[in-house]
Amino acid sequence: MENVQISIFCQTYNHVKYIQDAIEGILNQITEFTYRIFIYDDVSSDGTSEIIGRYKNKHPDIIEIFRPDRNRYEEERQKGFPEREKIRKKYLTGKYIALCEGDDCWVDPYKLQTQVEFMEKHLECVMTVHDAWQLDCRTGEKRKHSNFNATGYLTPEDIILKGAGGIPTASFVLRREAFFWDESFPKCEVGDWPRQLFAITKGKIYYFNEKMSLYRYMHNGSWSAKYGDDKIYSICHRLRMIEFLTKYDDYTSRKFHLSIRKRENIYFFDNISEYMEIDDVQLYVKKCNELSRLTERKYDTLMEDMKRIWGLLNEVSYNDKEIEKYAKKYKYLVIMGMGKYSDVIRRYLEKCGIEYIGCILSNDQKVLEDENVWKIEDFPYRWEETGIIVALHPKWQEDAEKSLLAERVYSYYAPFWIEDNIYYKDSTKIHI
């Protein structure tokens, strides 16, 4: 493997407390191949630059540093980091590219060897990742980071549904062709998750269930500390991520459409949840109108859906003509689900004077015998005569659809989910 070269990308900004750990974790790697470290110093002002300069003097053949004329992070973020990508292409020349940001560090000296050796033997694998320790810098608490439990290949659904933050960035090792996306790949204001989404269009991603790095969060200057409690920023971020996913769905020719739609719905529902403590209609509408202005009315249709579903969940100022029209089409009407969303729908139907005969559940759920509740497979009436109102959180969307399709049930109405389309400025409606 002596002919294999790895480029390691370390992005840093004011990481004076952590940058030494990051660089030492890289230099301590025991490998059968060569590697070079490229550090992008985004005009640090706290002493970080001096530390990386000293390491550069000690290891001039291994370390390369780039420092722009000024910090361009915010203006670059809004455009999807095009200039930074050009610089990366110039300096990251290896067959493989690994990532370790300046506030993270590698804690296993065989990390790189383990990942690259696997990829050399498995050409279908374009990216390897692993678990990490997650350190809360406010409390000093350290815990397991990853959302996955077993070593093995991850599915595209795993990558899409876990979303940003599902896999620690300092675990990434990619083939060069899976790292640099093409010009038609949609722009995004974050970089780690789109890297994964681009990689699954090129091949497979393998996960090692071993803690080989450390991820720090909630420290001064980190994204989590800066934006973690900012509701306005979080909502606008999710709206932009929904837009990105819609474009990614087109980019992939809808290959992962069901998982993308589910992820969009989860983002959307999280936005509604940000203001669930508000119980005043006028105040909630005012908040939504403020968001519309902040986003230049780009997501107004989504805002209308936010108002609609918030009104349903709070059981105020809600009038769903679609439910009434849907119910009139069928001899029988049932509610899918038995949780709090089912209770909301039940009360709404009773308020509107719409009759329903009971509830249905997926076949793997337990059914109480003393209620009008059936498993889908045991439902006693003809599905052609039955309307179904799905009263489930969007995170269960794929499971619910699979359960219904398994019984060849195609008609349902899901008032808590946005439809099979996403709206944003200059877009059109998308249908299956």
In short:
The chain has 16 helices and 14 strands. It has about 425 residues and is α/β, with parallel strands linked by helices. The strands form 2 sheets. Strands 1, 2, 3, 4, 5, 6, 7, 8, 9 and 10 form a 10-stranded mixed β-sheet that branches. A 4-stranded parallel β-sheet has the order 13-12-11-14, with helices on one face.
Question: What report would you give on this structure?
Answer:
The chain folds into three domains: 5-227, Spore Coat Polysaccharide Biosynthesis Protein SpsA, Chain A (Alpha-Beta Complex); 231-314; 321-406, Rossmann fold, CATH 3.40.50.20. 39% of the residues lie in helices and 18% in strands. The protein has 16 helices and 14 strands. It has helices at 19-27, 48-58, 73-79, 82-91, 111-121, 156-162, 176-179, 192-199, 223-227, 231-251, 257-273, 281-294, 300-314, 321-328, 340-352, 397-406, and strands spanning 5-12, 34-41, 63-66, 96-99, 105-106, 125-136, 142-144, 152-154, 173-175, 204-217, 332-336, 358-361, 373-375, 386-390. The strands form two sheets. Strands 1, 2, 3, 4, 5, 6, 7, 8, 9 and 10 form a ten-stranded mixed sheet that branches. Strands 13-12-11-14 form a four-stranded parallel sheet, covered by helices on one side. The two termini are 47 Å apart.
Total beta-strand segments: 14
Helix share, percent:
25-40%
Q: Characterize the overall form.
A: elongated
Rg over C-alpha atoms, rounded to the nearest angstrom: 25 Å
Report the uncertain regions.
Answer: 421-432
Query: Helix-strand pattern, N to C?
Result: EHEHEHHEEHEEEHEHHEHHHHHHEHEEEH
**Annotated CATH architecture of the largest domain:** Alpha-Beta Complex
Provide the number of structural domains.
Answer: 3
Per DSSP, what share of the residues sits in E-state strands of 2 or more residues?
15-25%
CATH topology of the largest domain: Spore Coat Polysaccharide Biosynthesis Protein SpsA, Chain A
What's the assembly state of these chains?
A: single chain
| Top-tier CATH class of the largest domain | Alpha Beta
Classification by helices and strands: alpha/beta
Distance between the termini: 47 Å
> What can be said about the biggest beta sheet?
10 strands, mixed
Global mean pLDDT: 86
